């Protein structure tokens, strides 16, 4: 779908936006931060990053439309469009943490054909094409761990919708007791990228948006992993839940999740 030249141009844009984010991380004034909704923060860095991404990706793929978190463009094309999170992990970013990412995915005829999760502070470029998944242009694969007690699981905590808190806490307790541990990076895009390269064995979360997961989910799939919603369906990008893991563990984790969220 994309030529090697186009991919290199896309990566160049991501590097430029990442440099902008790193340069401005300590410059954001509290009065420049808005709360879009409960615990959902945005700053001029999010907005300017998105504008830059849209402008440059439009040059590379002129016919593409966009689905973006900050809604800086209304251009649509259901046959070919980018799903963009210009700064996943905004709260981390604004509090001076390094775990934030740029996440993009290109959809053609409702299927992903390219994705990228770039972590600027770590200089890590995760990507996926029809040929596979990569970290800084080196092929990556999902973990092969199959012993439940040896697994490391990633998740995200509820931060605005607390309706299912009891089930969440019950699930956390079970996983804490039975696995090597639970991690919460504060960026679903990074959680998924880390799952794709085997740093995590699985990632699950509720109440995410398409731009949070579209890029990372495709990278997991192209790394040999499986991604579903909590109902074992494929509504994880435009639905309400996501579980990503290796094929060996997926059914076990899914059955535990379904027990707690039934």
List key phrases describing it.
262 residues, single chain, 14 strands, Fructose-1,6-Bisphosphatase, Chain A, domain 1, 35% helix, alpha+beta, 7-stranded mixed β-sheet, D-Maltodextrin-Binding Protein, domain 2, globular, 5-stranded mixed β-sheet
Structure described in brief:
The protein is α+β, with helices and mostly antiparallel strands and 262 residues long. It is built from seven helices and 14 strands. It folds into two domains: 4-139, Fructose-1,6-Bisphosphatase, Chain A, domain 1 (2-Layer Sandwich); 148-260, 3-Layer(aba) Sandwich (D-Maltodextrin-Binding Protein, domain 2).
> From the helix content, strand content and strand pairing, which structural class follows?
alpha+beta
CATH architecture of the largest domain: 2-Layer Sandwich
Radius of gyration computed on alpha carbons: 18 Å
Read across the widest sheet, the strand sequence of neighbours is 3-4-5-6-7-8-9
Number of domains: 2
- Helical segment tally? 7
Notes on the protein architecture:
By secondary structure, this protein is of the alpha+beta class. It folds into 2 domains: 4-139, Fructose-1,6-Bisphosphatase, subunit A, domain 1 (Fructose-1,6-Bisphosphatase, Chain A, domain 1); 148-260, D-Maltodextrin-Binding Protein, domain 2. It contains 7 helices and 14 strands. The strands form 3 sheets. It has a 7-stranded mixed beta sheet with strand order 3-4-5-6-7-8-9, sandwiched between helices. A 5-stranded mixed beta sheet has the order 11-10-12-14-13, sandwiched between helices. A two-stranded antiparallel ribbon has the order 1-2. The longest helix is centred in the first third of the chain and has 21 residues, at 4-24. The N and C termini lie far apart (40 Å).
